[in-house]
Amino acid sequence: MALKRILPCLLYNGKGLVKTIQFKNPGYVGDPINAIKIFNEKEVDELVVLDINATKEQRGPNFSKIADMAGEAFMPFAYGGGVKTYEDFVQLFKLGIEKVIVNTLLIESPETVKRVVDSYGAQAVVASVDYRKPMFGPKVPFNYAGKKIKHDLSSFVSYVEKELGVGEILLQSADRDGTWEGYDYEVISKVVAASSLPVIAAGGCGNQDHLKKVLYECNVNAAAIGSMAVYSKKGMGVLINFPVREHIIKE
Question: Which among 130, 175, 184, 209 is annotated as catalytic?
Fold first, then answer.
């Protein structure tokens, strides 16, 4: 059986790479170009880079830096952060970005998302569905520039699939992010069962068993790794990492 995709998910703050814990307290982990060079050598399946400060700082994508990263990457490259206009998408695709990941735009300008899907195809747009569990009630999507969202998680997934027509979902648990405790398997399984879209699971991966479980038991199409991609072990120093493929197979 062919191994499903495993994606390093790198967080960029406008200056360098960082890693968060539950979407907070970003700690510096290095230069993106150096990390990409190492991932080239490790022959990773695909790379995700998210500029986590772009929307917060009300700025667009740093096209010059993205061009540097895309020019260095020898693998499929997905980018997200600060994308606001159709022209932003056009420029990113010209730079060699194969998929653009959108978050706030799903709420602020759904017509732009639809236009890109119509022009470039569904596979060119990934919906970043971030969610957390409140003290009471169902898990809900959040992190959309403070915009109030009328959907719960289930209906939001349906919205990005059926109304916006995106080609893939990046499903991120804020509660699990940076914890090394494993993915949110219950929620991931429900989303996979309810949606026909490919799902990338993100948030919480800490070891190879976590990858096996989410890939083969939850049946996601891909698994993103964050802390595992930039640290040697939990609580230890920075080390650009990628798991040994032969160790992550369905038994």
Answer: 130
